[in-house]
Amino acid sequence: MALVDVKGFSFAYRTDEGSARPVLENVSLTIEEGEFCVLVGPTGCGKTTLLRSLKPELTPVGECGGTIEVLGMPLLRDGVLVDPENGGMDRRTSASAVGFVMQDPAMQIVCDTVWHELAFGLENLGTPQDEMRRRVAEVAHFFGIEPWVRQATEDLSGGQMQTVNLAAVLALRPRLLLLDEPTAQLDPNALKRFLFLLARVNRELGVTVVMATHSPEDVADYATRRIDLGEVGDMGARDDLCRSLEPRWSRRAQALANESVLEACSASFRYHRDSEWVLRGLNMKVARGSVHAIVGGNGSGKSTLLKLLAGVQKPQRGSVRNTLSSKQAYLPQDPKALFVCDSVAEEIAEWRMRCGYSEADERVALERFGLADHARQHPYDLSGGQRQKLALAKLLLTDPELLFLDEPTKGLDPTSCADEARLVRALADEGRTVIMVTHDLDFALATADEVSMVFDGELACTEPVGRFFENNIVYRPNKASRLFGALL
Q1: What pLDDT is stored for residue 314 in this prediction?
Q2: Less packed terminus of the chain by CB within 10 Å, N or C?
Q3: What is the DSSP letter of 476?
Q4: What does the alpha-carbon distance between residue 365 and residue 375 come to, in Å, rounded to a whole number?
Q5: What 8-state DSSP symbol labels residue 152?
Q6: Nearest partner of 10 among 48, 64, 58, 57, judged by Cα
Q7: Can you give 375-399 as a three-state secondary structure string?
Q8: What are the Cα distances from residue 34, in Å, to 157, 196, 221?
Q9: 129: three-class secondary structure by DSSP
Q10: What three-state secondary structure class fits 267?
Q11: Residue 163 near residue 170, CB atoms below 8 Å
């Protein structure tokens, strides 16, 4: 029996004017029990919408058509949602039998400690206490998280949080596991560990896995099937990209000799008086007109460093000197932090009076970032990648001289990543300065002039981009990538 059966499924989000914009049209697919499927497609093609439509309590609001059955139960019949009284899936069955892991690890954490997080779903289902303890012990052992099972969830790294999310879902013993770009915020090592655990869940526990991703090559060794929702582009070779970038690297070397516009001197920071130092005695310089990438493991302090450089946080010791603080813009890791309006068009226009740009500038920005057709849509109804584009478009309309970017390619397909790489390089060629935190090593190779690696609260090294990746045995771009193909 097919565990998932989708026939002629269509979906459209409603805009603030009441009209509907199609996201998925006439999609049909079946997924057999025990499969490991990767769902691939460009930004905004409907991957998240499709995944959420397979779990009743996450079903998005909009106009839909077609039929969906999951675990043999109808969720949608001829475009009408099926409630439990008419044979649809009830919330208890959905909670226990259909697991869901989100893109942002922190968004799914709801409890204060790892143990409570693992037990949370079981408690809500009324699982007897002895059975609950057993299941928590089982998943903690399976995922190797016994050493930090009593740890506070707020102290976990991104990779640890995502492992806890996966373990908490598995404690409910689902038959179907849905994952929406679960590795988008993981460092290279955490990504490999997470995918290995996911493969064990599929092969050893027999759980059917459906995972949306922009990097199917990462999971090629584990997946049994790939489902495409649109064109994904051709692969390109790292060596070919490096050869094409060498003339630029030579030209851009001059930028590193420019005056520094940003300097951290013996900067130290911790979030609480009695907590460990996140950053200790850190020294760093950023040259005017350069692109400076900051890399490192989950929880190493990269985002904290970016906030310190941008003035969002202040060092408890040492200092940060920023000569462009009045002309800067900051893109947080969660772009929704910038959204306060009811439509994309209103978001773009929010700072018009304050910053002096025009309606014509707004139209150009919407076209430039592929958002013109989404102008009437609510920002929260956009895909994760589209939200990234909207946030960056909004910031660039302020005409910043200094731009801070925290994971700017999160949720973007390779073509969109290539567009953003060209944009970042063009900003630097205009003399603007870009500082970005990223786990996307392919993007760092394609855009950065200099790379700093954060380790143990300090900068382990700062080197020109070519030398950094040539000498690094862990932080290395892919040998082949669709981003490279889009850039070549």
Answers
A1: 95
A2: N
A3: -
A4: 11
A5: B
A6: 64
A7: CCCCHHHCCHHHHHHHHHHHHHCCC
A8: 30, 16, 16
A9: helix
A10: strand
A11: no
CA distance 8 to 155: 45
Amino acid occupying residue 11: F
| 272 pLDDT higher than 90 | no
Q: Which distant-in-sequence residues (6+ apart) come within 8 Å of 260 by Cβ? A: 285, 286, 287, 288
Q: Give the 3-state secondary structure of residue 61.
A: coil
Query: Which one, of 208, 213, 230, lies nearest residue 5 by Cα?
Result: 208
Residue 467: both structure tokens together: 């030398």
Residues 6+ away with beta carbon under 8 Å from 224 = 35, 36, 37
CA distance 245 to 253: 12
Q: Find the angle CA(92)-CA(101)-CA(14) to the nearest 5 degrees.
A: 85
Query: Which residue do the tokens 């000799």 mark?
Result: 257
* 149-206 pLDDT per residue, tens: 999 998 888 888 889 999 999 999 999 999 999 998 888 888 898 899 999 999 999 9
DSSP 400: -
Q: Are 286 and 292 in contact (CB under 8 A)?
A: yes
The per-residue pLDDT for range 350-382, each reduced to its tens digit, is: 999 999 999 999 999 999 999 999 999 999 988
What is the predicted pLDDT for the residue at 18? 62
Element (H, E) at 30: strand 20-32
In this structure, the chain runs to a length of 488
Instruction: Using alpha carbons, select from 308, 304, 285 the residue that is nearest to residue 296.
Output: 304
Half-sphere exposure of residue 240, counting CA atoms within 13 Å on the CB side? 13
Q: What is the pLDDT of residue 189?
A: 86
Is residue 9 scored above 90 in pLDDT? yes
Q: Look up residue 146 and give its two tokens.
A: 């016994």
Residues 6+ apart with CB under 8 A from 148: 114, 156, 160
Q: How far is Cα 407 from Cα 293, in angstroms, rounded to an integer?
A: 10
Q: Which two tokens stand for residue 175?
A: 């038959």
Indicate the SS3 state at residue 474: coil
Rounded CA separation 224/34 (Å): 9
Mean pLDDT value of segment 332-352:
94
Go through 155-188 and write b for each residue having 16 or more CB atoms within 10 A of its CB, e for each that does not: ebbbbbbbbbbbbbbbbbebbbbbbbbbbbbbbb
Site of tokens 């506070």? 152
3-state secondary structure (DSSP) of residue 184: coil
What is the distance between the alpha carbons of residues 366 and 344, in angstroms, rounded to a whole number? Answer: 9
CB 313 within 8 A of CB 284: no
Give the residue from 67, 103, 246 showing the smallest Cα distance to 181.
103
- In 3-state terms, the chain is what percent helix, strand and coil (to 5)? 40, 25, 35
